[in-house]
Every structure is written in structure tokens, then in C-alpha cells.
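Record now logged for everyone:
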Amino acid sequence: MGARIVGSGICLPETIVTNHDLAEIMDTSDEWIRSRSGVEARRIASPGVGSAELGAAAVLDAIDDAGLAPGDVDVLISATMTPDHYAPGNAPLIQDRAGLGTIAAHEIRQQCGGFLYGLDLADALIASGRAETVVIVGAEVHRGYMPYGDSMDILLGQRTGPPTEADRARATEGRAWSVLFGDGAAAMVLQPGPEHSGILGTTLHTDGSLFELIHVPGPGFINYPWSSVDQIEQGLHQPSMNGGELFRNAVRLMPAAVRTVLEDAALSVDDLDLVFAHQANQRILDGVAKQLGIDPAKVPSNIAQYGNTTAATLPLLWHDCKNENRVPEGTLCAFTAFGAGAHWGAALYRA
């Protein structure tokens, strides 16, 4: 008996920013972005809206989808790399906003791998009898990372362009990574499932020697003070990414993790119906399908509409596919992710 998904929910900001919109504030084009990433549009949260607000709304949507009430939840697991506040993180804020009562609320920080780690934790809590109903939420507002300066107002429709030359140059300098990300939140409710259904197995891995593949150099408590104007001026508060090495590791390690959970369950790749892979880049998704030797149609993608929503990608993709009736009862799925840390792994799931 494994933990079974009994409900899912999402919350997306209203503002949609297309590649054409980005071309107004930096030297880029729709073709340049799409050919390198598959992203066509992304959501951006309005000023004053943080990931905890989106996360709480997604949690309530998922609880309602499950036919439950907030008071039915035993444990909350929050995964994010963009919390409203460095401390205490999002878990207590989401717990309070969603009216979950004084339950345990875990805050986990595996970035793009966060929701996958949350699935493993939820399954362990349910299997051990420590919890009956667990909600996992991935919620991100990457807006604060973006190197757009006052051009953010143009994207949000608060004024018209053009941007200043300095803002355009700064945005262009960061285009390799900034065009990939979007804001949003998604959640799942898990409960004990019937025998031979739900989560059938997981495998999780971390290799800290790869942390520089994608990381935020500062602020951080290795520094004194932990945050400074100099860090902001040097752009150390923004992600540093080695795209080539990220690609090579992701297309190697995610398929390997999927094969491991299949072998542990005495199943093969041929038994898989769907692979829910972290939505970082369409080229990575195509590489995962190729490495597994499966039809690319079995690796669904919604990155074109949302971009990379980090910890929210897996539940957001699940929710979309569920609503499209692509996950009927009995469907054998694998969830897999690779992200900053480096953290990666896979979970095998029978709907």
C-alpha cells in the first residue's frame, strides 16, 4: 500500500508574459527562446504577491478537489526556493493562510527536486501511520530573481516601454536563464491507497559536489553581513547556471533513476504509461524520452505555457494531465526531477 493522490490544485498569477513581451525589454526573440528551451510564455506574480499566497490557494484548491476540509489535513509539506521570507520560510505561512490548524508543517529546500522529495516524505509518513492525509505544495515566485530592473513594470503592464539602455543591457546579460522561469503553485493531497496502487517506490540522490551547476552565490551566512548592497550590485542574488552541464547531468541521471524504481518493482520501461519529468527545458524532456527509449508522447510537457516553475512543475503537470483525462485508474507513472544541489531521483506511481 502506497500513498495515493486523491486531489490536486493549482494557483497561477494572472499576468502572462510571452516571449514577444520579453523581446521588448532585452535582445532576444520568440524563436531564440523557443528553440533553446521550448518556453513560449510564463506567469509573473503581481507586486506584493509571494509564493506563500499562491501556495495557500493551491493547497485549498487541492483539498477541495479531494472532497476534504482543511481540518482533515494531518501534515503539510512545503517545497520552494523562493520563500516570502528567508526565515521562517513558507510552511508556517501556508499553514496559517490555508487554515490547517496547528499541524506539523515541513519546509524542504531541494529546489527543482523539492516536490519529488516531498512525495517520498509523504509516502513515508503515511506508510508509517504517522499521518493519514498529507498535503504537498510546490510554490514559486521567481520575480525577485529577474534582472529586469524597472522594465518589470513594462512586463506587468504598469507602463509602456521602451526600457532604459541600462535595464535593457542588464536584462540581455541574464537572458540565458531568466527567460526560463515562471511563477506559480500546485499542490497534491495524498492518503493511503489500495494495495498495489499509489507510490510503489522511490529513489533519491544528492551530490553536493555538483552544487555550482546552479546556485545563488549570495546572500548567505558565509558572508558578513549575510546580505549587502555590494552583493546586489554584483548580481550575486541571482542564479548562476552552467546550462551545458545541467543538461548533460539531467538527461543522464533522471532516466537512470526511473530505471532504478522500475527494476525495484520488477517492472520495465515498456510497462510505463507516462513519465512526469521536471519541466526545466523541452530539450531535456526530449533527452529523457530518448534515453529511456520511449515515445516522446509518454513524457508530457507544459513548459511552453508556464516555463520552469521549479518545485511546482511536477504537481502542475500532473494536474493538467489529470484534467485532460490522461491519467485513468491503473496508469503506471514515473515522477522524476533533477535540480540544484544537485538533487535528483524518481518515484514510481500507480494511479
Observations:
- Residues 3 and 123 are 5 Å apart (CA to CA).
